[in-house]
Amino acid sequence: MTIFDEIVDDKVNSEFTSKGLKPIYHAPTSAKIVIIGQAPGLRVQNSGIMWNDASGDRLRDWMGISKDVFYNSGKIGVIPMDFYYPGKAKSGDLPPRKGIADKWHPRLLKQMPNAQMTILVGSYAQKYYLKLNSQDKITTVIKDYQKYLPNYFPIVHPSPRNNIWLKKNPWFEQEVVPDLQKMISQIISN
């Protein structure tokens, strides 16, 4: 049985699999870069194609890679904190379910032994992987991204909902994004 089959058969996912939904992730053994985000949005869950939305377009732009490299090169792995769309909240989506990353991420990451960098997209992934405290500010974490290198590169979620944050923090696209693109280019071209 594959990891995919095990995720589908896991009882905690039965409400999703009973609707015919499939877990959204991509863990090729050839991956050099792993992206860990929160959970698929509704559009992504319905299409079955990860980062197939406005957030994905911005993420690829920030990474400096094409859709072809992102989806077809085998150099990019994607593991969300939850494999299924968690539902709608008052503002935005519900958070990823707890326990999913604990149970599945170690096995999926082990499946990608050539990964040289993990991009942590948004607060859920950053809090989990960087072991942040509740008082740690994501803006500070992203500003201090160099202290987490070379293993982790924390970035803000590319959602259009973060346009206000991006306007208030122009340093992100002026300074952080070029460094991200440079590192990705070096890793992918080797």
Automatic annotation (TrEMBL):
<protein>
    <submittedName>
        <fullName>Uracil DNA glycosylase superfamily protein</fullName>
    </submittedName>
</protein>
<dbReference type="InterPro" id="IPR047124">
    <property type="entry name" value="HI_0220.2"/>
</dbReference>
<dbReference type="Pfam" id="PF03167">
    <property type="entry name" value="UDG"/>
</dbReference>
<feature type="domain" description="Uracil-DNA glycosylase-like">
    <location>
        <begin position="24"/>
        <end position="181"/>
    </location>
</feature>
<dbReference type="InterPro" id="IPR005122">
    <property type="entry name" value="Uracil-DNA_glycosylase-like"/>
</dbReference>
<dbReference type="InterPro" id="IPR036895">
    <property type="entry name" value="Uracil-DNA_glycosylase-like_sf"/>
</dbReference>
